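Predict both folds.
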Amino acid sequence: MRLLERNNAGDFSLTKDFLRDDVPRYAILSHTWGADTEEVTFEDLMNGTSKHKTGYDKIRFCGEQARHDDLQYFWVDTCCINKSNNTELSEAINSMFRWYQNAVKCYVYLSDVPRAAFDANDELNQLRWELDFRESRWFTRGWTLQELLAPGSVEFFSRKGRRLGDKRTLERQIHEITGIALSALQGTPLSQFSVDERLAWAKNRQTTRKEDEAYSLLGIFNVYMPLIYGEGRDNAFTRLRDEIDKPSRGMYAHYSGHHPTRQSGRALTVNSGLDRLPYAVEAPFNSHSRQHEPICLEHTRVDVLHEIYNWTARQDKRCIFWLNGLAGTGKSTIARTVARTYSERGRLGASFFFSKGGGDVGHAGKFFTSIAVQLARNVATLSRHICEAIAAHSNIASQSLYDQWRQLILGPLSKLDGRSCQPSYILVVDALDECSNDNDIRVILRLLAEAGSLRTVKLQVFLTSRPEIPIRYGLCQISDAEHQDFVLHNISPSIISHDISLFLAHDLALIGQENSLEAGWPGAEAIQRLVQRASGLFIWAATACRFIREGRNFATDRLSIILKDSSMDEFFTDDSATDDDSNDDPAVAPEEHLNKLYLTVLRNSARNYKKQEKKRWYKLLKTTIGTITVLFSPLSTSSLAGVLHVRREEVIRRLNDLHSILAIPEERAQPIRLQHPSFRDFLFDEKRCADSNFWVDEKQAHQTLAANCIRLMSNSLKQDIYDLGTPGALVTDIENNQVEQCLSPEVQYACLYWIDHLQKSGAQLYDNDLVHQFLEMHLLHWLEALSWIRKISEGILAITSLESIALVSQLPA
């Protein structure tokens, strides 16, 4: 691979042809070609005749931007490839996807977007800018598809070199323009998308040479084939499909649901192995599901961030920084801020944000494999070593956490020489206490401490959690010299109150603007009273602001409800109202204020109902939020409706006033989530949730959900559910969209988790009960469904769990 190098005088020169092992960190340019006579070629650079051409401006732009990002080297396709050498051209085209994938930065130069990024206060400019962006020729070209999907960092620039945004901030527009799935834009391995779906992304794109319509897709399908210009488009596509359809040789995907990696008959290529690792899409700090979660406001959390940044700068033996704090003290917001900061500096190795009940991020099953995938994407020189480890240990995804850590992360990192990468990388692990298995937590802590053994390149672990016993016990087993602790709730109350005051003033000012309230609303006194109510909990302040914002035209009324003005007593005249006298008592525990706020939000949803109507409403609400809270993996409103056996509109109606405690997306297929895990703690604790109308008996909720799952499966599953008529049909012959036509997301959820809910409920099994009847009628149908969704191994484990429940049920009372 040949690169461009910028010297101190601002000129550019071509480097030697780097071998795969010694390629330095580099930026890469994505653009559309102008006339051939205006593009700078390899020969132009060799002859010194490049500067008079129009295309030189793009090269200068790329070099300046690379310098701004502290990158000495960069790559531009027009001039870094000697196209007169057919062997070099063929190798370059077959390597192109990997070159873009390994680049530290990819700059998209949009020559037909003249305007700079829009001014938020100028709606006309915003409209013009977005129209130019959507109509850019760049989105119609064949080669730019892989240039969009391959790199981890893709930044867009106007013709004048003004930054417009990146793949993350512009993902909605890019998704609408291209039709590419959001999860693909967010980095989900392409092997998880069907062949037809990937071909559809390229359907309306053009290339100058017809054969390139096929050749530009080689990286998208991870195949290699020789180039034969002159063979025509159809012949090129026929050869491409032949390569795609060749079975893997000795390469099998993990049972987690990944499709088998399809390759040509050659040996495993660099990066292809990453597609075989189970990956938690929602783990990174900047995943699509977390895009609206905030980072720290400017001038807040100054002391703790200063402490963290000093720790990273020292790079001493304390390779773990443990930020611990009580629920709602702002740990996750700080973690996102740290991750964002080091991502922008090119030093973020990976991030994993645990969330109980969050599916793949609720357990450690995909923890180290997800970190390995991110490290490979974020550290170009590390990718090869990780892929070699995957090739050497074909079943690594099913091995222990110890083996995954040693083979996929510690081993590859120890092979870096430190010259072609950053001296240290940050691993951000948020809410480790949300991991479902305490033993896994202890193992993870013990293994992460081994990062201190690395010599040439450092890996520093920034970790957040509540001070739960498994975390404290795990850290006690690690030498004090290997970790630094920071107790968040021990910060001076005056500092925390100051930060919460800034947060409230910022958010309430925005709410005031959104609802055309008078300038200065709600005033310093109201903000100060809210700060007192918050009692040091950022989650209280954030929930209060969401509750007020949700009131829209009645934002002022919502504020009054929270402050409990006497004029708002009418909202709490039912027999479940609580005593207000403690609201201004500074001795009341912070948790009590949060409890009262959650109760206020829940009761407010029934403010317009009469007493008997309220009781019925509360019962419906309790069933719905209880189900949401005990889910092992979040469901959309449609799927939740299927589990509850009600219409989707009914679910939306029940949750309509709960946006301040539940994240309810507008997109129909996106899942509902808790705004904060403290709401789960509140709901399950009978002492904290003092109102029996809302307290959820966790075991009873699991039992109800298990029964609902069984009924849903009983009504949906049958033999040969696809009506194929051929018992030997392969799972790989069924596309994902076909699976969902017969097995909806809620049915898939029921198949995966009904036994888990049964186990959590503590229920006993009896002859001829609901479970017995289901297994008698649908055991084989259930196993068939699991095989179609590629989860048969999970089914085997579930049967083992069911057997243990049955054994307990047989014990004498």
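Second protein follows, with its predicted structure tokens after the sequence.
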Amino acid sequence: MAHPLEPASVSDQSGSPGPYPAELECDVLLSDGRTAHLRAIRPEDGPALRAFGAKLSTETVYFRFFSPRRSIGDEEIAHYVTVDYYDRLALVSFVDGELVAVARYDRCGDTPAALDSGAAADPERARPALEEAEVAFVVRDDHQGRGLGTVLLEHLASAAAQRGIGRFVADTLPDNYRMINVFRSVGFDEHALLDSGVIRVTLELKSRPEYLQRVEERERTAAVRSIEPLLRPKSVAVIADGEAGSSLGHDIVRNLLAGGFTGDVFPVDPRVGSVCGLASYAALGEVPGRVDLAVTAVPQRLLAEIVRECGAKGVGGLVVVASGDPDDEAGTGRDRELVELARHFGMRLVGPECMGVVNACPEVAMNASVAEHPPAPGNVAFSSQSGGLGIALLGEMGARGLGISSFVSLGNKADVSGNDLLRFWEDDARTEVILLYLESFGNPRKFSRIARRVARKKPIVAVKSARTVSGRRGAYGQGAGAVGDEATDALFRQAGVIRVGTLEELLEVADVLASQPLPAGRRVAIVGNAGGCAILAADACESYGLEVPELAPPTQQALAEVVSHDASLGNPVELAASATALEYRRVLDIVLGAEDIDAVVVTFTPAGSAGADEIAQAVSEAASGAAKPVLANFIVTEGTLGALRSGPRRVPWFAYPESAARAMSLVAPYAQWMSRPEGAVPAFDDIDVASARRIVETALSSPAVGGGSEQAGSARVPVASSVWLDTTSAFALLEAYKIAVLPWRRASTVAEAVEGASALGYPVALKLDAPVLAHKSDVGGVRLNLASGDEVASGAESLLTRFGPAVSLIVQPMAPEGVETVVGVVEDPSFGPLVMFGLGGKEAELFRDQMWSLVPMTTEDVRGLVSGLRSSPLLTGYRGGALVDLTALFELLSRVGCLAEDIPEIAELSLNPVVVSPGGSVALDVRVRVAAAAHEPPLVRRAMRTA
């Protein structure tokens, strides 16, 4: 086989190199948490490749070449770095600036890479696509075992799939266990055959659940390892720049010491001799021993040199705190340069312009932040993209008695992001609830995949700012995204993230989740000693979508036996103003034991001699033995709150009854999401992806729409043009995915219209063949219920006369009776394809009863699209209406989701209307706009986000 460090035949080298594939260049996380740089090989890499080969061990050379090898000659070096980036592609990986690994594929087959030198100029003479390629990789001995081979194979496979290759083959010796294990563990469908003492491995380059799962697991493991130096360091160096006691860095040293950090603290400040009683070092290099984490609070102009010092010292993580330097320029390329430099040395970076990090767990006790008094240790992890806001919320959490496990102020989020932290907190034993304050998503689709998995283990509560046009203008300078905030709503809903609208709600919901079990449903009982608060709580519960059911007669009878006065026992349960702690306890025990109640809100208003502290203690004791959440609305002093918070089970307190109801209404949907099955992305074996791709590529490459083609290697690819597909192509696209469409005929003349109607059967509809028009009826371009040839002829003649003989018409049979809906796809620049489902008909845009979903969509996502509409009862027999075929509707939506995922060039798709009836679901019309795709590659690959 053609090996990365082995000469190939002369025919392998034919064809001219294509444009350099810069899109393949990225940083990757290795299994030990350090970073590496990956890119396609370049002609100038010859010297680095020679040095790489010289450092390979005898055993590695033998395993790779099946025999001892001499040093690499000039001619071989020239061959190794000469690829066409299409039929022959090599990727190289750099660590600390040194080339440490290389992987290569060579397309198989007798056909040369390009038929001749004229192929580049003539697309008709371009090479045929061959589906198989030989692959091999080499990793330098001192970097083996770090996951380099696997990540190179992932990226090479993704690039190969984009270039029409569907299978890798590789030869290896039976004793080469490392190579064999990489092939077997990557997650592709793998086959191995032993022949003549050599194992030939075949990998099918197809995305499948097992592959995606293994890629994500490898990425999760690497991310956790990379975050450990930031949140679980054993030594911290604080690099300051100022006189003693006056710099931000000195404040952080003081906070580390005051918080009882369990590791070593090393102040680094050349201007002073000591900081907070600790000897200060003039430079980081002078610090004795290992430094896991460096925190720096220096002006921007000094940061690059600080990063170099950290790299030379082998620091694992770097936190760049806001410096307040007047020379700092937000929005410049400095963040990118800083991150690239940090990754060059294998470091992760938090910030810049952040407020630090905190790990309150007793075994670490690290306050490397500007927060002088962070909350006590607890089970809530918190990430904030706004530094100042995050520090302020830490203070609010402390005031509420909420403890934290760890806190990260992300600042500019140039490197470490919320996705990294979610992976870290997923299996962190100290973390049970995760809070996020987000201003933007670095990679929404990756966030969705991670959050969907993490939320099954731990609740995630998020505030996402920039929800409105005004908010987005303030955050980004202008509105962003194709569908506004609906995309974020869809992401959070599918992933099980609890979205809250305000910072107050963030803390209130965290309070409930951190101390109480999840409710089994939405049924709430209200217990109080004053009718006003109890009634307000009941009103608020129902207004927020909760239920306040009448208590069952056995429950009311049990309550009547334990209260010593007249009381309203239906729900709310209104006790006397003088109700005692014992009465509260007995009533709560009964209500919490009722099978038709899922949660309890307790209200208390001081009156007479009733003891607030004793009642608070009783509520806490009742809650401690219950499997249902208890929330308290006590109008009391701070001292009484201590009884609620320090009892057998901490009970969340709310100043107003409406606040308690609102918090429960935000938690209940998450509990329902947790109780649902996860669902699976449906797979259809009758989909013709190749035909769909040809339709789109033909449209984009048509000169008639301003398209063209450019060279990529020796392959022709369409030039980006946004174009509406003609009706024939649009319907053919749906046919490729077996999406049900009402039969149709095109007609350019009156005679053709009558002929088409006769073939389809009467009555029929006539409409303009105008893909650009969203609403043909608005311009008089539709004729319905034409029951004969004469009516069709008259209708066709009037349309052709009105709109001109150059137009054509569409003839269709009248649709069955049913509910009109609309199904659509929009490509959002940040979130990727989004599928929309809503109420159809002329009033659709007026009422905007729509739901959105990211792709890929599971079966549960599809059900949520349908059930989430306000008008969804129309599909389930509302007021005697017919029950429609929901199974057919679910399948149509699933197929549209697959189309949106597979064909990223679909910028906009509209099926309007889709008639849903007892007999099935069928689309009557389709509009499709296609454009160049900025989409994830066919095979998911691990890559760090660009700063």
